[in-house]
Amino acid sequence: MHAGRPLIPRDGEVRWHALRMQAVAQGMAEAGVGYRRETERRPAALRYAALRDGLADKLSASYDWLEQNLDDTAALHVGHVALATALSWLEFRELPGFRVSRTGVHGFGSSPGSTHSQRVRRCKRRSCGDKPTTDHAGTRCHCNGCTEAQ
Known about the structure:
The chain is an all-alpha fold. The protein has helices spanning about 10-40, 50-70, 80-90, 105; strands spanning about 120, 130-135. It has four helices and two strands, in the order ααααββ.
């Protein structure tokens, strides 16, 4: 498909780490949907507090796992993309937060005004208009279709 590095590593422990992180991100999104259903979407008379609390515990355990296993220096892979997407949605819906006392996971959030990790920077080229880029290695800008070397 292309000659560049794939988002899903081909072999070894790096592949399994990327897929494991993607699976945790998917589980966080599923727990978030359930939590939101039990706190907002379901009629108040039918809400089940034990389920809501269990889903909040799953989110908290996932944040703790990520705090221990997130490698912010690794090359961008599918796990990072899934994690950034899940955390952004969880924060957008104001579900149990990951920002309190979790400095490693904190940088993956994307709300306006939040602190971004090294992985998310702003391109300073005039042609890009200060758009975010996810290439943390600093070799190329991938924002707004730009392919200029940095």
